[in-house]
Design brief:
The complex is a heterodimer of chains A (169) and B (107). Chain A is an all-alpha fold and 169 residues long. Chain A has 6 helices and no strands. The longest helix of chain A has 26 residues. Chain A is extended. The N and C termini of chain A lie far apart (66 Å). With 107 residues, chain B is mostly helical. Chain B is built from 3 helices and no strands. The chains are: A mainly alpha (169), B mainly alpha (107).
């Protein structure tokens, strides 16, 4: 056992435990905080795999942006101490059955497939290679998705302002 | 740090499968729009883990999974912003965010 092995299983346990807590807890603000823990642990996992830029984006965008938006909307729409109604038993059984079936099907698929690694030389992931590939117009570049993404973000910005503005009476 | 020699790919896939179906169960169980959105975020993150793990373990000579995960993150952020604008607007009109009580367009 060495450090990164222990760290990986620690992060994996944290992700599973806190995601279940976030789904089960009836105090909605606590559920949001558990979601924050899950997102930070996933950022740690990305960092361990050597994608530092992606881990930073995960922290900034999810932990810093989406969770703050969610907590903000929780505070706008419900009391801090309010508890959600207990879900119906049939819903709990249905969700549990769906999740168990899905997980077992996925496990069968994962363990019966032989994953094969390429023999090609791994690319060095640093800011320079990420920036060059993201803006490259070569067949292997990602300039088109980058531009499509910027249009999507503009559309989301305009749509959000339009939806959330107060209608004039 | 290099994980590939120490942890098999299947362990990461099992982790992301668990996370995905916990998120799915959250969407099914919950009646509150905000908590349903949180379930969707869990599912998107599980997908992201998969993309990055496949990139890291099987195709380290390209950055395809990396950029796909980046795009999924941007779309998730846009989706969360639009969803929360809708939720705030629904709350203003119906004074609730429970999906059981928002049935104006039904029947």
């Amino acid at each position: 056992m060495n450090g990164s092995l222990i760290l990986f299983y620690l992060l994996a346990t944290a992700i599973v435990v806190f995601s279940i807590a976030s789904v089960v807890d009836r105090r909605i603000l606590r559920a949001a905080i558990y979601l924050l823990v899950v997102l930070v642990a996933i950022a740690g996992l990305l960092y361990m795999m050597g994608y530092q830029f992606l881990a930073a984006v995960q922290l900034i965008l999810y932990a810093g942006g989406v969770v703050v938006l969610i907590i903000f909307s929780i505070l706008l729409t419900s009391q801090i101490n309010s508890r959600l109604d207990a879900p119906k038993l049939s819903h709990i059984v249905g969700a549990f059955a769906t999740a168990c079936t899905g997980v077992s099907l996925t496990l069968v698929a994962v363990y019966s497939f032989a994953f094969k690694r390429t023999d090609l030389e791994p690319v060095v992931v640093n800011m320079r290679s990420i920036g060059l590939e993201l803006l490259s117009v070569e067949p292997s570049g990602y300039a088109l998705p980058f531009e499509v993404m910027s249009i999507l973000l503009l559309a989301a910005l305009v749509g959000t302002v339009f939806i959330a503005r107060k209608a004039r009476s | 740090m290099n994980l590939t020699s120490q942890i098999p790919l299947t362990h990461i896939l099992v982790l992301s499968a668990l996370l995905f179906f916990v998120g799915l169960a959250g969407v099914v169980i919950r009646k509150n729009l905000i908590t349903m959105l949180m379930g969707v975020e869990l599912m998107l993150n599980a997908v992201n883990i998969n993309f990055v793990a496949f990139n890291h373990y099987l195709f380290p000579h390209r950055l395809e999974g990396h950029f796909f995960a980046l795009i999924v993150m941007a779309i998730a952020a846009a989706e969360a912003a639009v969803a929360i604008a809708l939720i705030i607007n629904i709350y203003r009109r119906f004074h609730t965010v429970s999906v059981d009580d928002i049935d104006e367009l039904k029947y």
